[in-house]
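Project channel, design review

CF: Before we commit to the Trebonia kvetii constructs, I'd like one complete example in the thread so the newer folks can see what an input/output pair looks like. Taking ATP-binding protein.
RD: sounds good, go ahead.
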Amino acid sequence: MATVEVTFTPLPVHVRTARLVATAVARRSGVAESLLDEVRLAVGEACSRAVEAHLRHCPGQPIRVSLTDDGEQFEVVVTDAVPGAELAGAAGTTAADGHGAAEAGLPAGFAGFGTNLAVIDDEVPMRLPDGVGLAVIAGLADDVRIAAADPGTSVTMSWKRRAG
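CF: and here is what came back for ATP-binding protein:
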């Protein structure tokens, strides 16, 4: 099992680097070429959400991206350090179905995972309606899990490797 771990300061410019690293590691891990854009987009969305949450709540803490190949699947975990206690009851809905985090059964800190700030063409930020980012990630990855981390939230995305 090979693992690559990247940490970066919560600046939007670093999202592009995380996407490039994830795509390169996915390719080297044997993920089908046809899925590489999906990996790139999902990782970019998860990192953008983490950056936005960090800029609001803990700008001095790094974001962690872990990329793992276990032989059968390629997994990316994006972990923020936004404390859940600070975010309990944060305004906005973030679940893909338009409900708040508690109604969706997500960890307490997930409500503060932020509204969606998408980066289009690696440069232009664009605000999307709440919940769209999670729906995008869920549509791009084979499996998505969201869990409380200590502190913060982790978004785990995985893709099957190509047969071979």
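RD: helpful, thanks. The radius of gyration is 15 Å.
CF: The beta strands are 2-8, 63-69, 73-79, 116-120, 124-128, 143-148, 153-160.
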